[in-house]
DNA sequence: TTTT
DNA sequence: TTTT
């Protein structure tokens, strides 16, 4: 059934790249999308929309976008639920990006050599937009994810998992492809 | 900034129509949107996306759609947060529908005389898509909401507020228009 | 760059299925999409939007949709140009559908056994939405297109090319995949 | 019925602002939207999509965007037809923008003081997206269109109609509001 | 008739 | 807490 979302906004923080147990890259980020009108108090508000991207695009986003970057997302809405630590079921709504467009100008952010290109995971894009996007991810334990060292990565944290103490609860069996 | 969502799915339950303290109609409903592919286990899953509509369209939706109805939504994603009873801040992501299209055939559901028309709130549509959609609504205490008695309403509960024991926590001061 | 279209409307005519020289199916159809408001004269107008679909979906559309069928399209806008018979360059804007959703009810149109399922061309959907959609197509000369005989096809013309006298001017070399 | 388009691209030329006989502003421009993949010959192609905006947004676009500017459009597809000089009926497909987002960085284009804000025509946006967008427009003969002299306008032609020799064939009777 |  |  039809499920389509298009957003343009700015990243509220640096994106977070992780890998599933099988080395599939997944990046999550939040887009702040300003509302076109001000509220009763005269302030412009924003919506903060959680997004995930998979595979090659995940690495592109992690490498080329950072807090404050302007980006466009074309994807689908996804809902899922999980049990939190108190045993409560938490419902989550987020956007699974099928493509992410970098909208920063070429000469932005000091000198990075990246432009306004779009990020696609592979020659046939949008394989399956319904990849699981569970809360916890496999911590990448040393295996080479196959993407390191792209230009632009240096302005991200060296270890994208440094702040990630979450338990392992995703395996590639969850991936529908 | 760009924030656009289009969905086609089926209502998981009868829509819920409420009124703000000032008599502004707001209807909430959840769309089940089937995913185009099956998961690892071979099952087709769905996303369950919460939607709200305001004003005239709210009444149309409440009058003409019910559990299982197929509908299209064109709107925007909205996030908000509230404190729950345990003092926890809960984040909510939902779709504010600017228009809702009824996709049931004319002769559907037995004998309702409604067709495949689209629901718009007013001649100039989509006034402000960022209307508040807080969790609790004013219980309508007897004032005429200005729309009752449209054909088709009979197949809905006579008192749309009967099951609504939520506290009053929205006033028209919150409405940005 | 972002290029996204979502439409719901009704086919103005039976869809036209053709095949490229290499046997790739392509179906074209026009969606009438009613405008939400009436014009100065009080009439509801419609937009008539040309759409194309490729491969498996092309065959599904040809098999299961016909004049008057309600359908949803998720795709991209595409422009192209060609020389007409007077040597004039004609510019064309159309929608390349990545997915087509059938919105007719199960029991519609007399008894056809088709439902409200979505049509996708292959397990990894939407390979390349920028397939050429030139005006003339290869007339299928006897090779098996690989899809005949699906249920529902009987209510379409036996020979989908019978009325097609257009010259051959597309080859698979034009296909970017 | 659902009819939604979202585009991000670059203006192929300076936008063209005109006025109807009643002084309603309308701006037309073409967006070049790059395709995400290269064609058979290895080149990246683009789609060239004609867009129109009305009223206040028309003036904003004319004042703040120019050839090469990056912009996002959220709107609807519209078709219309007209007789050309040879008496042939020409069919036109274009996008009626309900909102236009300026995606150029704040410090772009030398020194213009405009940022990445979105252009809306009025506090209640998107009154009627189905405004006529005929080929020829009334040449504004001296009446003040009510918007001149906004900052940024200096980098546009002083007389937006200088190159416009088209006959008058639109009147406000055509405007559905 | 096309943009970076 | 989920629809056909």
TrEMBL record, chains A, B, C, D:
SUPFAM superfamilies xrefs: Nucleic acid-binding proteins
Keywords, ordered alphabetically: DNA damage, DNA recombination, DNA repair, DNA replication, DNA-binding
GO CC annotations on file: nucleoid
Motif (Important for interaction with partner proteins): 172-177
Molecular-function annotations in GO: single-stranded DNA binding
InterPro entries per record: NA-bd_OB-fold, Primosome_PriB/ssb, ssDNA-bd
Biological process according to GO: DNA recombination; DNA repair; DNA replication
Alphabetized Pfam families for the sequence: SSB
Region of interest (Disordered), ranges: 107-177
Description of how the protein assembles with itself and partners: Homotetramer.
Physiological role: Plays an important role in DNA replication, recombination and repair. Binds to ssDNA and to an array of partner proteins to recruit them to their sites of action during DNA metabolism.
PANTHER family: SINGLE-STRANDED DNA-BINDING PROTEIN (PTHR10302)
Name by which UniProt lists this protein: Single-stranded DNA-binding protein
